[in-house]
Amino acid sequence: MELSPQKQRTRRAILDAAAGEWAQDPAVSLGRIAATAGVGRATVHRYFPDREHLRSALTSDSWAALHAAIVEAAPGAGPVLEVIDRVVSAMVHVGDRVLFLFASAEGSPSDADTSVANAVDELLVAEIERGQREGELDATVPAQWIQRMVWSIVYTGLHATGDGLVARHGVDDLIRWTLRGAITAR
């Protein structure tokens, strides 16, 4: 069943609110999510019958948003370090979704989300392997190690913005600087 534009906006507002709230506190109430979304709790329940339906929808939506952002960063177009910079910016742009995925899924996608999550990882690993082949990235460590470094440093940067340690608008540069120091060829 296709939702009207108004219902799509309401659903999106609820998902965005849930991402922001659950990224900070996985135990936050549905009432708090409803308030953040600017709707009543009953409206949340009309779209998502219970907490688990909302969490499941948000998980799928978050993986899809992350995948779309990374695809938009144009993997394969240009020098690898520039591509990774764009991927980092894409991840920061969907930051609440990344934080939510870490907080709720602990890095393990559901069966329904495995293909999208794998596609996200494959895009990043392909760039890392290209960078290792071309001599831009350290080839002495496994590509999956560097991939985990990217995830970890992005997560750390996003978490630091939530803690007030770094401004959200400046975290991209700090993440990129830290990451380049860790992964570039020596």
UniProtKB/TrEMBL annotation:
The keyword Transcription applies. SUPFAM superfamilies: Homeodomain-like, Tetracyclin repressor-like, C-terminal domain. InterPro entries: Homeodomain-like_sf, HTH-type_TetR-like_transc_reg, HTH_TetR, Tet_transcr_reg_TetR-rel_C_sf. The keyword Transcription regulation applies. Keywords: DNA-binding, Transcription, Transcription regulation. Residues 8-66 form the HTH tetR-type domain. Residues 29-48 bind DNA. Gene3D superfamilies: Tetracycline Repressor, domain 2. PANTHER family: HTH-TYPE TRANSCRIPTIONAL REGULATOR BETI, HTH-TYPE TRANSCRIPTIONAL REGULATOR RUTR. This is TetR/AcrR family transcriptional regulator.
